[in-house]
Each structure stands twice: as structure tokens, then as C-alpha cells.
Amino acid sequence: MRSGLGLLIIFAIVAGNGVIAAAASDSPTITAQGFAMTTTLRARPGQFDAVRVRIEAPARIAKLVVEQGDLVTDLSTTTNRSLFALFGLEKRPMNAYDVTLNFAPYINARLTAPATYRIGITVVDREGVASQAAFTVTVIAEEMRSIGSAAPAAAPRHLEQLEGTFQRRGSGTVESVGTTGLTWVTLEPIDVTIRLRAARADASLRPLQRSSWNDIMTIEDLQAIRKRVSPVPYVDVPAARGGAAGTVIALSNGDGDVLIHLTDSDTAVSQMGTIVTLVANVRR
Fold it and tell me: Which domain holds residue 214?
């Protein structure tokens, strides 16, 4: 009986040691899904699709460390729950047999400057066995083109410059030569302050600084005014003795954009009422 029991005990110990050795030999694995770890993923900022990596640990996960630049975090023990969404997690993967990380939210949120970035992954199971892997992503500033296929930059389109005049006699209609687009009413009779408006109902009026006349030389410059300056319903200017000189206005309608620089103004009295004349340089 003793010898039989001794043999049974020895067999159990040997078998137990064999099971432990077998469990320890199953190292954690790190597997890319849909791409190869050796291939650099490329995309424009914020446009990386799913970047999934699956981690499996038969002895369960004890540590799952992600390293990228200054970021070194153990996702299995971190108390910063805001990181979970960046890696497609709902909770810490501590003691999990497997987990899939999605790096796309992190890449799109944190890696926005054009460059190549390395992302490292280390998994350690509860028996202290570790596995490591890494992959790289490149954030590109613009879509990559083949050599020689880049489109040439468009040449600026310069505005045509003309001279024009506007004139109104009393309450009559505004007559124009060389330009069009403005009308007005008289607000104050002494210095003859007039209220300039766009002549067309579908037009918008934008007052600009005097220096704008020297800065706006191309069609692109003039079109950009629509985005930078809000339209107004009218602009009040004094017309007597050159008072309107220096006024710069941008007019926009369905036919395009016009830049008007009033260079002189004058008034005169007539039987038909006050005559108001505006002299302008015009670019269109």
C-alpha cells in the first residue's frame, strides 16, 4: 500500500508540473487586424479608419502598456477613464483573456501634425510572460500625388480698373458713367450728407478701410471680402467739398463683385434741387 500511494503521489506532482510548464509556454500574442505591423499606415489628419490590434493572453492580462511619444499608459490599471474611448475600450482589460484595441480615435484626435509616429504595445500576463509589438502611422498634409502630376498653382486674376462718375439732380435717379451700382438719398442739406445704398435689391454693400484700395488687386482678393466683411444696408458720407473722398466700398451681386473708391465729391444748387456728383475709381 505504501509503495502504491508513493507512486500515485509522484505521478500527480509530475503531471502538475507538466501542466504548469504548458501554461507558461502560451505567451501573449499581439495581432494587427486588417493591416500588417510592418506596413506604415498613411492618411490625412483625422481620416484614419479603424486601426485594430487584438491582444490574447491565455494566462490573462496583467499589464497592457501603450507607448506613443510622451504617452506611456497601462490601460489595464489606469484610472484615467477618458483614455478608454481613445482606444475603443469600455473598461480596463485587467484579467481579460483577450481584447481588441482600436487606435483610430487616438490617432485622429492626438496625431494631427504631418509626421511619422511610432506606437508601441506591450502585454504582460499574470505569470509575468511579456510580448511586444509596434507599428507606425504617417499623417500627411495633403493627398499624395505621383511625381510630375501635381497641379500648377493658378495664376492670380487681376482686376480691371476704370474711372466713373455718379450724379443725382435733386430727387431724380442716379445717373452713372463708367460704372453703376449705387444710389442715395440726402440726409442733411448743409454738408449734404448722403446715404449710399446698393442700387439693386439683390446686391450687398460692404464698407472697407481706405487702405483696402491698395491691397485689393485681384479677383481672388475681392471675392475674399465676402467672407471677411459683413454687409451693411447703407453707408453715410458727406458729399460737399470733397467730403466723400477716400470712401471705399465693395459691391456684390449676381453679376460679380465691384470695388469702388470715391476720389472726389461735390455739390451744386440748381432749380431741380441739389446736384450731387461723386467721382470714383472702380475695379472689377
Answer: 161-283
Contact of 100 with 3, CB cutoff 8 Å: no
**Residues facing 198 on adjacent strands:** 182
Grid cell of 65 as nine digits: 502598456
**Any idea what the CATH number is for the domain that residue 77 is in?**
2.60.40.10
What is the dihedral sign for C-alpha 201, 203, 207, 210?
A: negative
Q: Is 106 exposed, middle or buried (0-12, 13-18, 19+ CB in 10 A)?
A: buried
Task: Dump pLDDT digits (tens) for 246-255.
Answer: 999 998 887 7
Q: What is the pLDDT of residues 210-247, one digit of tens each?
A: 888 988 888 888 888 878 888 899 989 999 999 999 99
Tally of domains in the chain: 2
Listing DSSP states for 218-256 in one string gives BHHHHHHHHHHS--BS-EEEE-GGGTTTT-EEEEEETTE
Judge if 270 and 181 occupy the same domain: yes
Residue 179, Cβ neighbours under 10 Å: how many? 19
- pLDDT tens for residues 16-42? 333 333 334 589 999 998 888 888 998
Which residues sit opposite 283 in a β-bridge?
161, 259
Q: Are 113 and 193 contained in the same domain?
A: no
- Determine contact, residues 201/251, Cβ cutoff 8 Å: no
Residue 80 sits at the vertex; the CA angle it makes with 77 and 85, to the nearest 5 degrees, is 100
pLDDT at 87 over 90: yes
User: In this structure, are residues 52 and 75 in contact, taking their beta carbons and an 8 Å threshold?
Assistant: no
